[in-house]
Amino acid sequence: MRNFIIKRLLLxxxxxxxxxxxxxxxxxxxxxxxxxxxxxxxxxxxxxxxxEEWVAQLNAQYALDLEIIPGYLVQMxxxxxxxFGDSWRFTVPVLQKFSEVIWISVIMxxxxxxxxxxxxxxxxxxxxxxxxxxxxxxITAGALVGISLPxxxxxxxxxxxxxxQLKWFDVSGLMGRNYAQLDAMGKMLDMAHHLVLPIVTLTIxxxxxxxxxxxxxxxxxxxxxxxxxARAKGLSEKKVIYHHAFRNTLIPLVTxxxxxxxxxxxxxxxxxxxxxxxxxxxxxxQAMTAGDIPFSMFYLSFLAILTLLGNLISDILYAVxxxxxxxx
Length: 328
Known about the structure:
Helix content is 76%, strand content 0%. The chain is an all-alpha fold.
């Protein structure tokens, strides 16, 4: 196991360098250039330097005057030393802006993932064990509805019903009007109240696929020979399902959960935008459309690291879930 982890980590480092180089090249090719926008803004100040001099100065400051490969090497050197630079779009250090917005998205994504597991796995098992019953048809239909619902449509419906008509929640935003007058607990509850509809949106539009995935894998396991053997030995149906079948169903589910790690930190761009939640998804979109290379480079590289780490965790968890799996 130790040798496997070391080999995977070394391979991940090589993959990470390739991925970050592709990201850097794509960012250099963005049609929007915040350098030119900032240079235009600075050149209009009284007594300022000409536009061309500002462009040259800003490009030299961020190594954009170099060719692709030398510029990438300078960027990687800065990142490896912990110097991620300042965000061009938000005019603060990249790490400071990242730390300000990441936890909102992590909380939303984490709660949504937990709710998906709590809802999807039991319903998927029920649908599989009662195949072609009314419960199976109802659960399958609900899953298909969840899969088919566009995020923007479902979020708009929730806002119309619960915010506009019933007035149980605010239409958008993360804080209420009286947020500044509340104590610490009141502020926490106020923010939690504003996150209810976004979390419900993320859960409903994502739970259907996990439900169908659980049902499909559970049906495959229930039709296996060893399940028929367990039943022939006289084991109770409950023990057959939850002790033998469900444990083997966990293996593909572990893959999905491990692969969801980057999703917790990537944010929900559409949901955060519709509900005006200043999470990492909305922030990264603003940075990319503004040509903010420092922030976008850090964020996309961070997601690449999480993706590699999530795949490694999934492989390791195979051996934990199923003792028959041994990594050589």
